[in-house]
Amino acid sequence: MKIAIDCRSVFPGRGGIGRYAESLARGLAQVDTSNEYLLLVTERQSQPIAANGQVQQVAFQATMIDEVWEQLHLPSILAEYDVDLYHNPCFSLPVVKTTRWRIATVHDVVFRTYPQLVDARLRSYLDRWSEHALEVGDAIITSSEFSKSEIVKHFGTPPEKIHVIYHGVDPSFRRRVPGKAEGVLRTKYGLSKPFVLYVGSLEAKKNIDRLLEALALLVSDGRAGERVLALVGGRGGNDYDVEAAIQRAGVKERVVVTGYVTDEDVVILMNLADLFVYPSLYEGFGLPPLEAMACGTPTVVSQATSLPEVVGDGALVAPAEDVEALATQMARLLNDPELRRTMSERGRKRAETFTWERAARGTLELYESLDGAGR
């Protein structure tokens, strides 16, 4: 087959969907020696995603969310390159069918469950084109059993059409031996004191308000010690004002907002952190907690949506809307050395079961099952 993977979400500063598309494309290039791949990228992605003789990468004047390009230009591009199977890792599929098979990855349906947490323009796009993809796609990939159940509930998609393929953890996320880079990064990001770490977009969906309130509780009764909270990530698509949230919580002196940080720096920060916290209200998968666990960093997540399914026994959980419970779980890991050691080891073992090779092989099996069924 000739397989096109839509990698318009892959570019410098990419988000979670871009990381998924990039890692999947690389994994497929490593495990598949039979099929050809066409990677569709935007002009922002100048570097090759996966380099071998079976992979061709072509750039277009398009954006990650681009209805006009997807519906008016993409079908003819797929026909021009004689593509057999088109896979969009970002929710949508074209109305005009010019390939034998079409697959979309629908990561979650937060736009229906919590519409107020999603930017209006993005919400409209996701709602319209996810529904279309779920109807016309030959198969649908999602990243957790939770997300599969949500898709079935909100759209009525037949369960047998939806295939759960877990994401992987890049091997770069691992326990590191301390070195000079650690001191350099502490200075670079203003983290001279011990710190608690959050990595992800800065938006309302991530429940950052309650994380800040939990920090305020720990500071007020001394359980935080001298630790600060590092919020690492770019601004989300909605109008969430993180600075205002920090002011409301009264923890301005205890919070460092870094903005976007490269993966290389994130690995080091995860190794340096005393604790990783991910209190999100809604996740289709939730990769950052697994990455922190792979680094051996004790982790707390919210007991919401897909997160308990993903972290298993490798992290502590707290109800997403319970600030005191979140503060309690954070304090347990910050102040109990034996529990820290136990959770660090459990976290690493759990994270080891999630690999991009496994994700790529599962995706390839799905591709080939469609090809075999169509012969």
3D structure, described in words:
The chain is of the alpha/beta class and 375 residues long. The protein folds into 2 domains: 2-168 and 355-373, 3-Layer(aba) Sandwich (Rossmann fold); 180-351, Rossmann fold (3-Layer(aba) Sandwich). 43% of the residues lie in helices and 16% in strands. It has 14 helices and 13 strands. It has a 7-stranded parallel sheet, with helices on both faces. The longest helix has 18 residues, at 356-373. The N and C termini lie close together (12 Å).
Structural class: alpha/beta
By DSSP (H or I, 4+ residues per run), the number of helices equals 14
CATH superfamily of the largest domain: Glycogen Phosphorylase B
Q: CATH class of the largest domain, anyone?
A: Alpha Beta
The biggest beta sheet, please?
Answer: 7 strands, parallel
Runs in which pLDDT lies below 50 for 5 or more consecutive residues are none
Elements, N to C (H/E): EHEEHEEHHEHEHEHEHEHEHEHEHHH
Question: What's the arrangement of strands in the largest beta sheet?
Answer: 3-2-1-4-5-6-7
Distance between the termini: 12 Å
Task: Tell me the CATH architecture of the largest domain.
Answer: 3-Layer(aba) Sandwich
Question: Which value, in Å, is the CA radius of gyration?
Answer: 21 Å
Strand content: 15-25%
Q: Can you tell me the overall shape?
A: globular
Overall pLDDT metric = 94
Number of strands: 13
Portion of residues within helices = 40-55%
Report the CATH topology name of the largest domain.
Answer: Rossmann fold
Tell me the count of domains: 2
